Amino acid sequence: MRAIKDGFAHQFAVVTGAARGIGRAIAEHLHRAGARLFLVDCNAAALEETTRVLRDSHGSAIDCAVADVADPAAIERLAAQVASCEERVDVLVNNAGIEFDLPLEKVTADIFDRVVAVNLRAPLLLTKALVSLFSEAGGAIVNISSIHAHHAFPNAIPYACSKAGLVALTRNLALELAPRGIRVNAVCPGYIDTPMWDEWLRTASDPEALARETEALHPLGRRGRPEDVASAVAYLASTESAWVTGTCLVVDGGLTIRAHP
Ligand code: NAI
Questions:
Q1: Distance CA 142, CA 183 (A)
Q2: Tens of pLDDT along 71-95?
Q3: What pLDDT does residue 2 have?
Q4: Which of 139, 143, 177, 201 could form a cystine bridge with 134, CB 3.0-4.6 A?
Q5: pLDDT digits (tens, 9 = 90+) for 103-128
Q6: End-to-end CA separation in angstroms for the chain
Q7: How far, in Å, CA of 7 to CA of 126, rounded?
Q8: Is the CB of 21 under 6 A from ligand 1?
């Protein structure tokens, strides 16, 4: 996959949920384009592996921290760790997310709160904790939402609410942070081949049939790859999108443009 060579040289980027899937692809893309990285994930083993692979690829420097972004105290600790690594943050990607595939009758207060804590409250608290580290020149924040923010799918109420909230958070942060030159945008991916997607497929009685069915829904003829999302994030994090803020970029291979399947 192409990355704008050195497009992020001398930039420092914090990426959450970076150990695997979309977050790892975002980290790889920014790393190839010259960014120094601070990677965050609650999966210590996977984070260590991703960090090792990226360090071995002769790119820019990488730090990492194991943290549960749903824990406000952990976010404060993270902000202190980030500040001890670099004086200035240029890019924050709030990517860490979780999903539970449950019908209404199985949704509990605890499940709803957990999903919202990871998918919505963490981006808010991490932005708040890191905003003073952005320079007077500003920077970019990219939140990974979902097509669930705008379209209903079965068994996805907590997830959809959290992702719709994240779009609202993106708009409101964009307005508040615009005077400081910090742009805030969201990416809304469709079906992307990641471990999260695999876990969802396995909830079906016939995962292969479900995979074929969802593939066929895409006008562009395939499901998404993590790199498709990473490219969109790189655009929104770079000066190529200098006049874009508060928006939501749908990356779904045309899945949600059809009126009828
Ligand atoms: P994934 O499950 O493959 O990876 C998510 C990463 O986030 C994992 O490394 C996990 O350990 C980490 N994480 C989860 N909870 C965390 C927490 N509390 N603290 C720190 N790290 C945590 O998921 P995937 O597919 O890569 O998704 C990434 C983002 O993209 C999520 O926000 C997801 O909602 C969103 N998304 C994914 C889509 C897909 O089809 N895969 C579609 C639309 C949006």
A1: 8
A2: 999 999 999 999 999 999 999 999 9
A3: 44
A4: 139
A5: 999 999 999 999 999 999 999 999 99
A6: 30
A7: 25
A8: yes
Structure tokens at 149: 């923010």
Predicted confidence at residue 261, as pLDDT, reads 67
Question: DSSP alpha helices (H): ranges in the chain?
Answer: 21-32, 44-56, 72-85, 109-116, 122-130, 157-177, 195-201, 207-216, 226-237
Enumerate domains of the chain plus CATH numbers. 12-189+224-250 (3.40.50.720)
Q: Amino acid identity of 131?
A: V
Residue 176: count other Cβ atoms within 10 Å of its Cβ: 13
Tokens at 15, concatenated: 């990426």
Distance CA 215, CA 221 (A): 7
Of residues 159, 191, 197, 200, which has the active-site annotation? 159
260 band by pLDDT with thresholds 50, 70 and 90:
confident
Mutate to test the pocket of ligand 1, among 194, 197, 202 (most ligand atoms within 8 A of CB): 194
pTM over 0.85: yes
